[in-house]
Design brief:
By secondary structure, this protein is α/β, with parallel strands linked by helices. The protein has 14 helices and 12 strands.
């Protein structure tokens, strides 16, 4: 969206009664969990009557998804963490949009938004943190200039507090997952020519080291005989390399999949070996094992692969548990944070 269009939507939104106008800014150039949460939030806020503008880099999937959904967008370069040029441009956009709240969704945009809003106290700054390791530069970035922090889990809040961020400025708002809309579950056995007895185990994520992918080979290698022979692995996320094997277990590296609900509905078991996660939205409930316990992971995976009844029972229980992390709840709780900081 260009500057003139920003002026146009500003005039339109003034007819809305007393709801703060929200500017979301995110620097991600790929479609990961954080960008999906921004999209769900912006879309949900619009349905509640808020006017929201999504600011992201040119070519980012977030821009594409937002525009497809009819949300106003603005393309901003967002270079380094202290990018003065982007901060000036963001300041102008926030002014034209008449933003009551600027919501920065990652560390880079947190710094840029702070620079952009220096002296603009009528515009509140809300910052979301999604990772469970301690933030850096706490005195510079986290002590002043931010009206509220949103941590996506208690673990993220604890890491922030331990690093020196005041606890009373942090709200825990869990990331939300929308109710799955499954059009047609992927039939991985038919697509890959795998036998009917194969049990399809999937791993979902950006396929980075923090997701624990280096332990997958160790897990696969230690699966007991018959379980090892029945197991097939599907990797959902990243660039995708096609057919593969992991420590002798046949698999398929599907890469980024647009219809993720259909893809996941075709799995029998979901593996999530991540060792660092703010709140893994690909997993809301699961068999839990201690972090780094490969033997424990193998035992749990083997139990699920070999016991069809156990898989069915846990699957039904997970559907009930997941309702506590519904996207609607995330949207409503975030709106409460906005309204509180605007009220002072």
């Amino acid at each position: 969206m260009g500057q003139g269009l920003v002026q146009g939507v500003r005039a339109e939104a003034r007819s809305v009664v007393e709801l703060p106008r929200i500017l979301h800014v995110d620097s991600g150039r790929s479609w990961r969990g954080g960008q999906r949460q921004v999209f769900l939030l912006a879309s949900g806020l619009r349905d509640l009557g808020y006017r929201t503008l999504v600011v992201a880099p040119t070519g980012s999937p977030l821009i594409r998804h937002a525009e497809h959904a009819g949300l106003p967008t603005y393309r901003l370069t967002l270079r380094g963490e202290w990018d003065i040029r982007s901060a000036r441009e963001l300041r102008a956009v926030a002014g034209e949009w008449d933003a009551g709240v600027v919501h920065a969704h990652d560390a880079r945009t947190h710094s840029i938004a702070r620079l952009a809003l220096l002296g603009k106290r009528k515009t509140r700054l809300v910052v979301t943190r999604r990772v469970a390791f301690p933030p850096k530069q706490v005195r510079l970035k986290y002590r002043h200039g931010v009206d509220a922090f949103i941590a996506i889990s208690q673990a993220v809040k604890t890491a922030m507090v331990n690093a020196g961020v005041p606890a009373d400025r942090i709200e825990v708002v869990y990331s939300g997952v929308p109710s799955p809309q499954v059009k047609r579950p992927r039939n991985w056995r038919r697509e890959r020519g795998w036998p009917p007895t194969a049990v399809i185990c999937g791993i979902v994520g950006a396929m980075t080291q923090e997701k624990g992918l280096d332990t997958v080979a160790g897990i696969a290698r230690r699966l007991p005989g018959e379980v090892f022979r029945r197991t097939r692995l599907v990797l959902l996320g990243g660039k995708g390399k096609g057919g593969t094997t992991v420590s002798g277990v046949e698999g398929f590296d599907a890469g980024f999949v647009e219809e993720i609900h259909d893809a996941m509905a075709g799995l029998d078991v979901l593996w999530h070996p991540a060792r660092s996660e703010g709140l893994g939205t690909s997993v809301i409930d699961a068999i839990l094992v201690p972090a780094g316990d490969v033997a424990g992971f193998v035992r749990a995976a083997a139990a699920l692969i070999s016991d069809d009844g156990l898989r069915a029972m846990l699957g039904e229980g997970a559907k009930l548990r997941a309702r506590e992390f519904d996207a609607k709840r995330m949207i409503e709780r975030t709106a409460e944070v906005y309204n509180r900081v605007v009220a002072g």
